[in-house]
Amino acid sequence: MNLILIGPPGAGKGTQAKRLVAERGMVQLSTGDMLRAARTSGTEMGQRVAAVMERGELVTDEIVIGLIEEQLRGLDASGVIFDGFPRTLSQAEALGTLLSGMGQDVDAVIEMRVDDDALVERITGRFTCGDCGEVYHDRTRPTAKPGVCDVCGSTNLKRRSDDNEDALRRRLMDYYKQTSPLLGYYFAHGKLAGVDAMAEMDTVAAEIAARLEAA
Ligand code: AP5
Predict the structure, then answer these.
(1) Which of 19, 122, 126, 191 is catalytic?
(2) Residue ranges of the alpha helices (H) in 73-200?
(3) Label partner for 39 (CA 20 to 30 A): which of 55, 151, 212, 215?
């Protein structure tokens, strides 16, 4: 099962992907996480993408397709969640080609629908565990013990530098301009289903599970 989660920044893609990993043993491929790892590794590519990400703009197709290709190579890709990829039509076409070269296909695409107004609160309240990547929120999902990750016990909790209103506006604009056309693309391929991502996290997870059963 190869699943794509599509939604604007803060829709809950990472949150739900992590649940699918824990509950179904799927593999999460997040281009955002890969790019953040490249940025902190200080490689030439990492330095190139750092400023682009800080501004909330999209990194080039060439770089992200290269990252996905590298991850897919050698991976048993029968249960992959693509989180934040593809984001442009070129990326979608490249993914189709990569998967077909492995005798596979995209099996389901889930659009996570959220009101734009809710995104500012979600993004500005978000923090994550720097060690295991668990995603939290000041109000809707705080840690049980302040300053300590519920999952791995780390105290390395972080906020993202692009989680501010200015960068969010740019990320949202890119989402509507470059990523939302993918909804029509996957609808035409008979793959698209939508979930109400304004609902509680457990309800969203149940809706996604139902869509996967139907796929
Ligand atoms: P990326 O890391 O992919 O960021 P994004 O798509 O903007 O999405 P987010 O991670 O911000 O949100 P999410 O939907 O995962 O929400 P989350 O679960 O965390 O990309 C970052 C940057 O990298 C891009 O701007 C770009 O520069 C670059 N990039 C990445 N991929 C690229 C690509 N393919 N091409 C080009 N450039 C690329 O949830 C958010 C918050 O809400 C959390 O605090 C969470 O606890 C809370 N929450 C979640 N669900 C709910 C709920 N149901 N109710 C209430 N609160 C909830």
Answers:
(1) 126
(2) 89-101, 116-124, 165-174, 181-188
(3) 151
